[in-house]
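INSTRUCTION: Work out how this chain folds

Token vocabulary: learned, describes local backbone geometry

RECORD BEGINS BELOW THIS LINE
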Amino acid sequence: ETPEQVLAAFFHFCVSVVVVMSVLIETSLGDIVVDMFFEECPKACENFLKLCKIKFYHSCLFHTIHRDFLAMTGDPENTGKGGNSIWGVLAGEKQYFKSEIVPSLSHDRPGLLSTANEGADKNNSTFFITMAGGLERLDKKHTIFGEVAEGFDVLMKLNNAYCDEDNHPIQVIRIRHTDILHDPFPDPAGLHAPDSSPEPPRLPDGRLDDEVKFDPHEGMTEEEIAEAERIHQAEANEEVLVMLGDIQDKEEAPPENVLFICKLNPITEEEDLELIFSQFGKVIGCEIIKDHVTGDSLCFGFIEFADRNTCERAYLKMDNVLIDDRRVHVDFSQSTSRHTKDYFPSSSSKKSRYGHLMQKNGAQGNENSAGQSSVRERDERKRHRTDVRHEDRKRTRRYSPDRNRSRHYHDDYSRDRRSGSSRSRNYDSERRRDDRREERRDSRRHDERSRRYERR
């Protein structure tokens, strides 16, 4: 290639880089290069670029950081409750702009810039950067208008920043400067870029300046540092679960008297589990989780005991035990759904024998207050399920391979007997042997069902 061609290729490369890379954000931890989604979210991109042009974000703090979730900034008041759009700044009053939800954009990876709105179509200058993927539940609520192209090492430092109980960094992390690399939007009327950055606001109480050297693990041993990091990570995970709505409070813990059981046989019934686990003590509730559409067993369930010691004995004895020809797995339940029924509206709508585990304190015992009529109804349902199961097994045996093979033997025997063949004796003996095998199998199943029904 000639030098002119090389120079032209380099020029086109530089132009493409400038067009894609839109904003350089200089922070106290390092530089971040952001690509903007001009075509998908033009309003949000225009708002962000024009605010950068008037140095609106200079000295703004990352006031809230949730580890492995998001980091929020863009509020000059550094409280998360302020901020304004570029049109509100020019008009001298607080104004919002509408959300731009794009189905092709999702919070599925770290490094995405999204608006931190105050409600539906109430977007302003505040935004957050995702610190992890798998946050699709934020879709349809927040507008994604850009993503980090360079500076993921800065995001890692931002994610690992040491924060207090309210997720505010102990040592402030501020945006020092923003440089616009490419701006395809014309300036609105009345916009004038200032010559200097605004004065940094006063630091919140109890915060360290970003220029002060701060080591939260100073004077600690390696074991103490590892323990502090583990506790900090656990607290961050709890905070994320509270924000996502999986739990109501950080101090919420799973019950100590409930076991989780999985890998069950689809034919296993709740009464079977209750009978098996009652040998260790009183069983308060037992439920096998079923598909809400088909009603088929999902092969896992929960068992609640009267006390913790009984639950521990059942856990030590029943893990990896065969139940209905399936080797089940038993562990302590990690579900906190028993603390509230508001998070599980489906549990209150269906008559679940394990439903009291999904309800608040004081709602227990409602099933026992139904009187003997509920007991009779339960026995009727149990007999009906037993009859239906027996009919299904009979129907399966009727079309089983052994039955078909016996029928073929009978047809071949009749044909050979009419033709005078000597093979009829062999078919006759095989047919009688298959019939005896079927009779013994049916007898064993009948005896087993009878014993199980008597124990119930």
About this structure: The chain has four domains: 3-180, 215-252, 258-370, 373-455. Residues 38 and 45 are 6 Å apart (CA to CA).
